[in-house]
Queue: 3 jobs
Job 1
Amino acid sequence: KVELKKEEIKKGDITIKKENGDINIENGTIIYKVTITSNYGTSSEVRLEDVMSKLEFDGTITAKKNDVETTINVTPTKDGFTACLPKMKAGDTYELIYKAKLPEGYQGTAIKAHNSIEAKSTNSDNKEITSKSEIDTVFDDGTIKKSGVKNEDGTVTWTITINEQEKDISGWTLKDILNGNTELNGTKATID
């Protein structure tokens, strides 16, 4: 944890915050909202780096500076994007809204995606100032869930819940793969 003395903060600061917006499980898309603020301003441009895990940036960002629409230059990368904001004045706020999507073939599956964004600039002493925000998003429509309970004899009773939302899953195949040295003890299944 880094603590800044009040006089150091007055020389420049930056704060970034990322929030989840609308999530579309079936299409595998999410809208992110990022807010970048500076109470005391920055002495140089603000460099942004967004890194996505299990997601792809869709290529467009809607940007506002102090509630007025603006344009920023964005460079897509293999796992997110980079962007640059002009030097911020005291009290400036940027709001960025953009969409990310799961890679092709993963829509409708249960996946935990991670996304982080970092802002870097300098203060009036030309020292680097940074702020980072991270967020996890779970794409899970609840179509299938699995849980296990360890029994007194050391065996595990598994429960698999399928299709609580009563979606059309015709043509689906249920396959449960055991890991490591696990053995299946009998082939008994109870269907409720």
Job 2
Amino acid sequence: HLLKSPLGKFKPSTWKPQAIWTEPHNCSGSINHCPSGFTLQLTFQQDVQGYPDLPVRYIISNGGQNSRGNGYYIRQIRDKYFQIGVAKDTQLWQVELSLSWGGPTHLALAWSEEDGLKVYVDGFIAASAAQSAERVYTPVSVTPYREVTIGKANDEVYNGYPDVHIGTISLTDSVISNQNVSALANTLTGESV
């Protein structure tokens, strides 16, 4: 089911990086609180020119990119190539894929420990990682990265403009079926909240 307020759907600002969904005790703040997995969906507009001098730019993150965080991230690593990952303790599910420039893109990632990571582009499966790889993990007593951040990594200082323009975002506390991802791709594109 769709998580309720302050979760659910969110239409962010297009002019500054910002934190959303800052609750540490549910699925948005830590994937440790997602026993049935999760599905994150968003629409975003890629820049035609890109940022050739910027080594990595983050679309969204909630701590998976950091060795002390359990969470997910979507980041552009070069030109049209994106890296999407989910990290939990010493495990990392990660894929790389190329996205074409142009109009808005609907991106969805569905993850559970049992099935791994599936990534959908405009309603169709584009990449998957059923098996995890080992990663360096530093256990902490309190989750240091408990907010979902758009436009920057959530372990960075928010300054300047966001790295990308984000449309509607939705988060569910379960893995959505392939058919439902396709249907939601159509409803989220251009929807105002």
Job 3
Amino acid sequence: GYLLPARLLPLGQLSLGELGELKERLERSAPAAVAVQAKCVASLAERLKGRSGRPLPASPGVAVVSTDAHPATLGHARRIARALHQLGWRHEICVPDAPGKCHVAARLSAVASVEADIVLFLNSWPGAFIPLLPANLPVVAWFLPGFEPRITAGERFGDSLSVAVPSRAAAESVRASGVPHDAIFLCPPAAD
């Protein structure tokens, strides 16, 4: 679930020579780490795709995932977890609140471990994640006020994708990106 470091910062404990050696070792080991992560993602995606379609149970399994580390997103994920717990629904939360929860492998693992019947992307666009999931698995991208969906032009949307947005302006923006009208839901702020 870890991402590889994008850069190394000298903190004074290492000489420039030691920092250079560490950087070289990381660069040499990166391809192996990336290969292991890719194998993990492929294995999890294959495991998930092997699930047959099933009707939504009375107490579904919910995976709440995000790529957004904003404190509001992390806090909202905790509130959702409490609500799901009170409902007695199986759930797994994977938000980037720790280094091991930043890679797509960690999010896929959350979906697989709870045997999710619904995947909720909080303040994140599922984008490249959708092809890794079974076509019939409901995916909801829920954006809170102040968080705008960033949709790549020409992106494909699965039939099981829904988008919840806080305002009509956000709904129009999502619709202009090509998301079908009937997949967009207005979800204004409320109290929990």
